[in-house]
Amino acid sequence: MSKILPLTGDHAASESMRQINPDVVAAYPITPATEIVMSFSQIVANGLADTEMVPVESEHSAMSACVGASASGVRTMTATSSQGLALMWEVLYIAAGMRLPIIMHCVNRALSAPINIHGDHSDGMGARDTGWIQIYCENAQEVYEMGIFAVRVAEHKDIMLPVMVNQDGFITSHAIEGVKMFEDADVKKFVGEYVPNMPLLDVKNPVTFGPIDLQDYYFEHKFQQAQAMRDSKKRIVELFAEFNKFSGKKYELVEQYKMEDAEIAILALSSTCGTTRVVVNELREKGIKAGMIKIRVFRPFPMDEVAAACKNLKALAVLDRADTCSGEGGAVFGDVCTAIYNLNEKKVPAINYVYGLGGRDIDEAQIKNIFNELVDIAKTGQVKTVLNYSGVRI
Question: pLDDT at position 327, please?
């Protein structure tokens, strides 16, 4: 019988790790991800998991240890945030290039400078092209469930790529919610026993990991890696169907809320979707045909699904909780525009809002203001300013 526990996003992650019972966890503490591994280390110390904990001196070492452990043929996990993820940068590419199914909980936090410990998506968006599959979670329940789901994704024989499970720093990671738990035995059955692909320690079938790869083969190997990312979308959809049957949920690459007849919509990731959903309900009561599009899986980017969700809109706002400093808008906006302008016959007027940097709250009033602008754009078909900022003092 399932039970509901009061858990923060961090503790939801550690509870999923307890049920998965990975072979190795190597990590270095950093706010606001510290409590994930701190809590899990207590779980191990209390004999509730038999994981080999590897305390290291930095996040670079943590990911290096994870690479070594995963290459040896064991199920491997870690967690980090912000500067920790930045310090891992070099090794993120190695983990993906070696096709190692490492699971990492990333508690999204602003990057320095200036130093800031609160949540935005600068770290996750900075790592978007490192070759890791990225899942963004709205609340602690999703953190728990996607932590379990990620194992099946990473270890699928047609994928074999690392997975980053993202949640918003403090907003999700330190807020207590009721999280409905699966039975331990059911999780164990769902994730199954890890069967490694060409493990380094199989002495009867010796393999080489990480050799130099020059112009005669490097291109082909990187193409295979990129193709695996592209092909993973189909497998993730199949795994969602299996997970939905297991969990009773309805997870998809892209979630649509009141989009059946929507004329205007906001597209967002993570915890902001909760606030947006409330505003959509209020606008609907006033007769305004508003909707919300929530991207759950950002890498591989669900281009077809995003385009389909937007095809009947009269105006769209894309929210980015990270700025690219390119002058052309955020990373999510760029990918969304590529989808809607290349795959849809009808060109939907789209605007970008950068918001919430350094953990600054986005409230219902800000969301309403964005929708008000969309109402005007829907009437005129004209976009005054493509790149906008919400909640900043200018």
Answer: 78
272 contacts 298 by C-beta, under 8 angstroms = no
User: Which is it for the CA torsion 168, 306, 310, 342, positive or negative?
Assistant: positive
Angle at CA 155, nearest 5°, toward 154 and 159?
Answer: 65
Percentage helix, strand, coil for the chain under 3-state DSSP, each rounded to 5: 40, 20, 40
Q: What is the Cα–Cα distance from 211 to 230, expressed in whole angstroms?
A: 25
Q: Name the burial class of residue 338, with classes exposed (0-12), middle (13-18) and buried (19+) by CB atoms within 10 angstroms of its CB.
A: middle
* Residues 6 or more apart in contact with residue 220 via CB below 8 angstroms: none
The verdict on whether omega for the bond into residue 32 sits within 30 degrees of 0, i.e. cis, is: yes
Q: How far is residue 270's CA from residue 124's CA, in Å, rounded to a whole number?
A: 12
* Beta-bridge partners for 257: 292
H helix intervals, the chain: 9-20, 34-45, 59-72, 82-87, 89-97, 122-126, 140-155, 184-191, 218-247, 272-285, 303-310, 331-343, 364-380
Measured CA to CA, the distance from residue 31 to residue 110 in angstroms comes to 11
46 close to 67: Cβ distance less than 8 angstroms: no
Q: What is the CATH number of the domain that holds 379?
A: 3.40.50.920
Amino acid present at 119: G
Strand partners of residue 106: 80, 166
Q: 3-state secondary structure string, 27-66?
A: ECCCCCCHHHHHHHHHHHHCCCCCCEEEECCCHHHHHHHH
Tally of structural domains, the chain = 2
| Domain extent for 311 | 254-390
Do 172 and 28 lie in a common domain?
yes
User: Smallest Cα–Cα separation from 68: which of 102, 36, 40?
Assistant: 102
Full-model pTM: 0.98
pLDDT band, very low/low/confident/very high, at 120 (cuts 50, 70, 90): very high
Q: Are residues 313 and 261 in the same domain?
A: yes
d(CA 311, CA 378): 14
> Do the beta carbons of residue 221 and residue 204 sit within 8 Å?
no
Q: Is the backbone of residue 198 left (phi > 0), alpha (psi -120 to 50) or beta?
A: left
149 close to 239: Cβ distance less than 8 angstroms: yes
User: In this predicted model, what pLDDT tens digit does every residue of 200-212 receive, in sequence order?
Assistant: 999 999 999 999 9
How many angstroms separate the CA atoms of 57 and 99, rounded? 25
Q: What is the three-class DSSP state of 19?
A: helix
